[in-house]
Amino acid sequence: MDYATTPQASHLTGLSIHKLREWTSRRALIPADVPPKSKGSPARFTWQTILILRLAVTLRDRFHLELQAHKTLFDSLKSSLRHTSLSGLSDKTLALYGEDRWSLIEDTQHGHLADEIVLIRLNPHLKVLASSSAFPNTFTTPSQIELFPFQAVIADRADHGRLPLRQPVPGAATADRRVLA
Questions:
Q1: Domain locations in the chain?
Q2: Are 102 and 96 in contact (CB under 8 A)?
Q3: Is 181 helix (H, G, I), strand (E, B) or coil?
Q4: How far apart are CA 89 and CA 104, in angstroms?
Q5: What global pTM score does this model have?
């Protein structure tokens, strides 16, 4: 898994390093994925956390919302995005219904919504992350579909203990296959 350091996260989010540390450490609004090991060492952030930080900046700057009141929203987003593939977010819009209710909707569904909501398109934020060198392995294969998100596999192993290794079935094909003519 690729991580961005504090300076990279600052650049990608548009937050000063001081403000980024305030949001991720002091206020714990959106915590870093790997906290700093000691004073002066950088925290590390996944692309999901950077995306949430960018969305928080949008909510603060464009809509003038108080972010601390939406901490449960950010926690919920972070938890759900951990199990979401990058390709699953393409052409999606984040719909915020207030407090901690949200959903991801297709860009074409806006006309069918009846509630008062805030809509944030994700593609501009994903493009900034994709153009960054902070996550080289995450954004290099856009045509490949992620069948099993890595975090979900890790969570599954943690919940159920170590999975047994698969044993070869007697008589099954092995690596040295023979071609019959």
A1: 4-155
A2: yes
A3: coil
A4: 8
A5: 0.67
Do 77 and 31 contact (CB within 8 A), yes or no? no
**What sign results for the dihedral spanned by CA atoms 119, 17, 32, 91?**
positive
Those residues with Cβ within 8 angstroms of residue 121's Cβ, 6 or more apart along the chain or in another chain: 93, 94, 107
Structure token digits, residue 145:
């579909």
Q: Which amino acid is at 65?
A: L
Strand 44-45 and strand 101-106: pairing?
A: unpaired
Over residues 73-103, the pLDDT tens digits come to 999 999 989 888 877 888 888 888 876 788 8
- Alpha-carbon distance 168 to 150, whole Å? 24
Q: Where would I find the H helices in the chain?
A: 6-13, 17-21, 47-63, 71-81, 123-131, 150-160
Task: Please answer whether residues 149 and 83 qualify as being in contact, where contact means their C-beta atoms are separated by less than 8 angstroms.
Answer: yes
* Residue in the structure block whose two tokens are 């915020």: 96
Long-range contacts of 142-150 (CB under 8 A, 24+ apart): 142/86, 142/87, 144/87, 145/85, 145/87, 146/85, 146/86, 146/87, 146/88, 149/82, 149/83, 149/84, 149/85, 150/1
Radius of gyration of the chain (CA): 20
| Letter string b/e over residues 129-151, b meaning 16 or more CB atoms within 10 A of that residue's CB | beebebbeebbeeeeeeeeebee
